[in-house]
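Supplementary material to the annual report.
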Amino acid sequence: MVEVKAAHPFALPRRHLLQAGAGLGLAALGPAALGRATARAQEAKPRRGGTLRVAVADQSNTDTFDPTLARSGSDYLRAKATYNALTWLDAESNAIPDLAESFESDERAMRWSFKLRKGARFHDGSPVRPADVVYSVMRHKTGPSLASSIVTNIVGVAADGPDHVLFTLAKPEVGFPLVMSEVHMSIIKEGTTEFSKPVGTGPFRIETFQPGLRTAGVRNPEYWDPERPYVDAFEIIPLPDMQARVNALLSGDVHLAVNLRGAGIDQVRDSSVAGLLTTPTSGFASVHMRVDMKPADNLDLRLALAHLMDRRRFVDVVLRGQAVLANDVPILPGSPLFNTELPQRALDPDRAKFHLRKSGIGSTPIEIYVTDAANGGIDIGQLLQREAARAGLNVALKRVPADGYWVNVSGMHPFTNNQVTPRPSDDMNIALFWKSDAPFNKCKFRADGFDALADEARGSTDPTKRKELYFRMQQLIHEATPQVIPAMQSYVDGMAKTVHGITPVPVGYLGGFNGLQNAWLSA
Amino acid sequence: MSGGMVRLILTRLVGAAVVLLAVSLLVFASGEALPGDVAQLMLGEGASQEAVAQLRQQLQLDRPAPERYLNWLGGMVSGDWGVSYTTRRPISEILPPRLANTALLTVLTVLVAVPVALGLGILMALFAGGRFERGTSVVLLGLSAMPEFMLATLAVLIFAVKLRWLPAISNLNITNGPLEAARALALPVLTLSLAIAAQIARMTRATLVNLAERPFIEMAHLKGASRLRVILVHSLANAVGPLANIVTLNIAFLISGVVVVETIFAVPGLAQLMINSVSTRDMPVIEACAMIFCCVYVLLLAAADLLGTAFNPRLRRSR
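Predicted assembly:
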């Protein structure tokens, strides 16, 4: 993992310090979870041509090409087809150069310099300049942006000569290049305010963009990578109904169908024309518990629920095995930072009864808000309810619609479903969801010393130290148990057997939303 | 047309207008009742309170509900349907292409389903009691009990996945030419046709068979008219009123089927637009779609009533 791969000669020298998760992680998951995609990528020489058709799950009139407003998976997919960010991720979640040829930092990881790729041009022919990068980043600071919380650490961004951009940070951050790989950090032309006909530097030029209906683009012949993309054109079609996506894949109308669940996974796995593309991630669905709200403020009640969760059944039956057992901490088991010293929690009725007695909850019912908006959220509730009844705890499920859930319900009651989508780095996850001032710390979790540990880990260049700090943080989360996290879920996509070249990248579906430029079609 | 008939039509139209006014109130009220507001949803859960308040003001959501209702109703009547919250495009620009696709789907379905269903109903009445009639009855009963989403899924499984004759999705793309468009529409039209044709055929059969017991039919038989002639000439002439009523009612029912079918086959129609708008709380678009659907429904119901009356001399005269 330490050696620099030939394909990315400008990689950061300290890259092994960064979240180098999945290398070890994937090995631990076993061959089943790896999917066929990895093996297929090494097959033959890529073939050019063809139109790649993708069925996505989300459909909205708010579909956008504006990087500050990218919200849905299909927005991410569209953005990756059209734009480049300064960096990108490899399969092990290391930052690798994309629109930046190389990057480096000072000793303290406070000042980061990115050298722009020579010869990179926007679709209209104009060259990429530092001012474009400054403009793209500053939009998150000055205007409405869904990513304003991930740029809080950036205090300055400025041109440094004709082809360098210099970032100044508030606090040291060794994983900063990973932040710059985010879709929201896509580079647009200085002054752009209109996105119906997007101009990027990316592998495809957009020909048709009808929000909620269709996005189509053609190969950018001037792309700075002479090899990619391999296909001549792509088309993205929304099919919100999962069965419709599976049918479209099996009938050959689309090559890729994202977000398969339940029976759809079985159907595609058993098919002769398509297979599964599985991407293990640190994303999860959970029950989050407001530690400042009765009755969820009762630690014994939270621990009882953690021991009433039948994690194994959730993974095997509900998720069809496309997940890894989790231990109520937000780090992917098997990745280097995962705390292996904490005992793995499992269904344990005796422990649960012990904590229930201690909690003094008695026969008072507790309400858990569950929803389809979290993948498997309702199932988590039902599994808890079943085991709780046997242990003498009265759990009532309030099933609420997915529509508007995150704004109106999530975190508003003592027990609610939560869902976290994967981020490029664990540092980002901790800063967004777990620190006491985190914007999405809806459980109101806080523990003595936790924030200091998080800040220190973020700026620590010593891998042993980082691991130690992460172990402590996980211990604090595990002790307080503000969330019951039963499993880290994989993205499961269906892929026609004629599609090759897409390798899983653990931040999103279809190769981290970046599969369109790597895919090629066999005859 | 008699003066009575004209008066009847006018009464019906006034009635329809009153119903639509009530519907507009309901549509607006249910939009208000949806949890969460559009400003919060548009800006996401991380948005600051000031930003949300600012957007609410921009969209005039801070005004009292009755004032907004009256503004909206006034605009609706005078042809100004407002601007979409999320895309900021005028609704009069968003709706027409969607409406055209939905209309195409519905009209094709009616053209396919109605003649087939009437023919089948007549055949069943002709062979009432026979093996053909009983077999067909069982099949039709099964079809009419099946919800559209199941018919659609089965049709896709058979014709798209197994046989691979037709595409599983109907993302109508005009550039692909009329042949492709026809192929794309085949499965949605088939699904909707099965759903309504089964009902119409069964009701046609029932109407014709009921007539067969009436004295004037017996008389026709006694005079030596053939079975075919009795059904086609004597029965059918008397059944036109009820049949027109049945057909129109079923076309009205078609509207709910269109919502399901557009979702499953990804037809870029009005129903799909409405569902998308609900998830983003784009109230002006939701309200416009709802009003169009309700208008069509109310007018079809009124038409069903009028046709039933028009073809029944006794009812017509009693007014």
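The longest strand of chain A covers residues 274-289.
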